[in-house]
Design a protein that fits this description.
87 residues, elongated, two-stranded antiparallel sheet
Length: 87
């Protein structure tokens, strides 16, 4: 399941059709429809994604490490890349 908590696209990305998928999902439910729409586009429609976890880190999956020297959260495994967004 791709986390749709935070995501961004280029203006010309084919994922822009998410609005149509999202609208159809809203006719059935309001629960997790944004996340379901994104997953339908990636898995059902074949639109890819290449976003690393550190761009949208769900802390319930793994506790991030704190880099005191740089004063920021980082991935817990080497090479300890900075985490952009914590959810």
């Amino acid at each position: 399941m791709i986390n749709a908590g935070v995501f961004a696209l280029k203006a010309d990305a084919p994922h822009g059709q998410a609005a149509e998928v999202f609208g159809r999902a809203l006719q059935r439910s309001t629960d997790l429809t944004d996340q379901l729409a994104l997953n339908v586009l990636v898995y059902d429609k074949g639109l890819g994604t290449s976003v690393p976890s550190r761009c949208n880190w769900p802390i319930h999956h793994a506790t991030p490490a704190w880099d005191a020297e740089r004063a920021l959260f980082v991935e817990p495994a080497m090479p300890h890349d900075p985490i952009g967004i914590l959810l």
